[in-house]
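INTERNAL AUDIT FORM
Audit reference: QA-55
Scope: verify that the stored structure record matches its stored sequence.
Auditor: D.O.
Record contents follow.
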Amino acid sequence: MATITLEYDGRNSAIKKLIEVLISLGAKEASADTSKKAQVQNVKESLSTAFDELHSGKARKNARNLFA
């Protein structure tokens, strides 16, 4: 699933109609609070994984080798 963020003038009726069409085609509307919570959760999970790998000795010591 892909995610997009739109900024628009809420008074623009054409944009509102376009968003309604997208939703009718299966798009979902997420609130900013939901996105923020999901982002915070993803960061926590990433940090937890990184520290677990560091403590278990699985972490690479040289970050330059990560993309070699």
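Auditor finding: record pair retrieved intact. The mean pLDDT is 84.
Action required: none
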